[in-house]
Amino acid sequence: MVRWSGVRYMIPAMSGHPQDEAHEGHESSLTGPALRVKALESLLVEKGLVDPQALDELIDTYERRIGPRNGARIVARAWVDPAYKERLLEDASAAIAEFGFVGRQGEDMVVLENTPSVHNMVVCTLCSCYPWPVLGLPPVWYKSAAYRSRAVIDPRGVLRELGLEIPEDVEVRVWDSTAELRYLVLPERPAGTEGWTESQLEEIVTRDSMIGVARVRVPPRAKR
Amino acid sequence: MNGAHDLGGMHGFGPVEIEAHEPVFHAEWERRVFALTLASAYAVKWNIDMGRYARELMPPAEYLATSYYEHWLFGLVKLLVDLNVITREELASSRAAGKTGYAALRLHEVEAYIRNRKHARVDTDVPPKFQVGDRVLTRNIHPIGHTRLPRYARGRYGNIHRDHGVFVFPDTNAMTRDRNPQHCYSVRFAARELWGPAASRRDSVYIDLWDDHLDPA
Hints:
The complex is a heterodimer. By secondary structure, chain A is of the alpha/beta class.
């Protein structure tokens, strides 16, 4: 049983630690949250609740090893392999797991196919739900109040601002990630990529195209 | 709760700006609070819905005036104190009065922790209340606790697009750890049903909702 209190807890910035005098009046290189997080980490380490080595490993994993290149591999495979694409649209979790991209914030995946008549885009209006195993951690704009507020009420306006004009006869579907389902957009394969290899295709797939706020484009000087 | 986190449909936040060459983290403290949150959740075993609710409890004016990882910091401290993992005295002094009884996440356990599937999906045979294609009306509810039914979609008509299967119900799981398994559906709402005649006739919003958010229509 959780006893949710109505109390808001303040963390004094490293209070009682004479080596940090930055919080008195003017700022040093560490300000506000930086000082408070440092104080909290030292407390939690002292209490034995967290192990700094494990913290470093968590950070390294999400900063360097898991990111949108994973998703790009899924998209490129779906573009060259119709049987894979079929599996992906039928049971995305299993098809993505074939690449080993599994785990936190990607346990139950759904893939949304963009077509000439349907454009899909993904948002989380309530927090920041995002498919970590295939796209990594979400970018700041995806978590911003501007995107979260506007994607559902004015998707075409948001897309237009981001350089993507959706014709009136194309249907826009916005997916608000309110549960533990995580959405990945399968963008349209651009014209002019006929005969490209899977790895060539992988290189042109962008993160934003897999959120549904951009198209995949062939770079002007792309050579086969 | 009707908090500042429930942003869908609000006006006035300005354009969406995509930062070029965006780094994953913008400061060292963001890295640390991210990892502290994951590692603490492992040790104390609070559920993801409690984690979300803790952030939603940030006072609205403050929520809107602070950055994303400041929300995380707020939620982390809230959980640690409310679950009696640390005391307010320890927090105030930044000095531990003693060790916790929780087993910390260790380096060799990190990979499995990240990769292991933490199932919100439940293998329980609960009959669905709705079938694909059914017309539904979302409940007009305003709980003071956690809910995943956004304000902009309350009291609205939609259609069941897909049955995702049986899932933990966040609205109760966040408050009392009652998993309350039930079907979760993708529900399609016409943009005009949500936003009125100014919205496009073609467009729609799909929201994942549970049996307890929906009534037959």
